[in-house]
Write a structure and sequence with these properties.
Elements: E1 5-8, H1 10-14, H2 24-35, E2 39-42, H3 53-56, E3 63-66, E4 71-74, E5 79-83, H4 88-100, E6 105-110, E7 113-116, H5 118-126, H6 131-139, E8 141-143, E9 157-161, H7 168-178, E10 182-187, E11 190-194, H8 200-211, E12 218-222, H9 228-233, E13 236-240, H10 245-250, E14 253-255, H11 262-270, H12 280-289, H13 294-313, H14 318-330, H15 335-342, H16 347-353, H17 355-364, H18 369-379, H19 391-407, H20 412-421, H21 426-436
Parallel strand pairs: 1-2, 1-12, 7-8, 12-13, 13-14
Antiparallel strand pairs: 3-4, 4-5, 6-7, 6-9, 9-11, 10-11
Helix pairs in contact: 2-11, 13-14, 13-19, 14-18, 14-19, 15-16, 17-18, 19-21
Length: about 450
Amino acid sequence: MSIRLIALDMDGTLLSGDHMSISDRTVKVLRAAANRGIYIVPASGRTMSQLPEVLRRLDCVRYAITANGAAVMDLRNKQPLFTSLIPPEPSANLLRMAEEIPWLNSETYYGGNAFLEPKGQRFLDSAPLPPAFKKQLSSFRTYLQTLHPLIGLPLEKMRFNRIPEEHMEEFRSLLKKAGTFQESYDGPDCLELNAPGTSKGAALQELCRRLGILREETMAFGDSNNDLTMLQWSGYSFAMANGTEEIKQAAAYLAPSNTEDGVAQKVEEFLQIRPVKSSAPLIRNMICYHRGDRKSVQHFLKVLGYAKAIGELEGLDAGTQHILETAAILHDVGIKPALEKYKSSAGPYQEMEGPAPAREMLMQLQYDPAVIDRVCYLIAHHHTYSDIYGADYQILVEADFLVNLDEGKSSAIEAENVKTSIFKTAAGQLFLEELFLR
């Protein structure tokens, strides 16, 4: 089964040792995965405002699990896709505790932002963190003299730092009176609290449900105990070499540390990013498959030409370019069985009947299983335009439209309509304008 989503803890997993940057190798691998239509989902204890700028600028990230699963954010519109918040009454109890107890300092997460009162600010100032990272964290927080403005609001999370050992039993007693919470440990003297049932694993499960992704189609990477539920739920779970012993026991696989590009190494390995095969044997087989049908052969060769040019101009990595060109050769393989079964070559019939002969042909030519899975997915969706995800999917649709517009002798009005509704790549838009809108 192919991978369709990769969930990544950030600190200690995806990010380098400075807690701020991602290595060039990791960026390249994640973009290659996203170009194949795989969702790249950071999963962090941080809130939305604390996501590193380098991560938010990556064009391959659409969704992010934040605040230990309290909010799953759509980064395109910066709005929550769904939330799991601490209700107003227990959140008010927590806030009053944080204000009234002199030895208790806290961070409060609400509405995608982190709030600190003076005790929490003093903790941050003294925390043993890299200076640049500490400065970044400070810039992403809102400082309040009192937590009163937040009382009665549904909170994403509260974090309590450096709880004195002699006060831990007292603190536990106060928590029981305040309400029921989901606990996430970040250290022997720190505690993070969310709404009951909130976790990275629960958020990942709900996100996958909404995206139509099966558990077996997910990978997850983590190093800390708040990643435990995410690794337990995911089909392919990876603990970082720098992770806790509990995480290592829970994961199916061990990845090198974050400072060794462990995420990149394992994604490359499991996605089988390998030297690509020549397309010539597949083209030969498709010509034989369409024996005597010159129109169908000419059609897929023209789609292949546009797909190859657009993909190269858009800078696709070699693996994704190979998937795109393979799908372009095979995209209409379903027409023949559709006509035999339904006496129709309508798009939905092509999508239903195409994957089976495509898979058989690719298996005979010994293509990588991951390549076969992705190509079959593209064939099964190449007439579906409602939720295009992945550069290979987008470019295949554009290349097919360019040929269909020409073969159908479409008007400039029709071309203008698809320019705004379908075409997204710069190269595809250029070809459309030069060929149909001049």
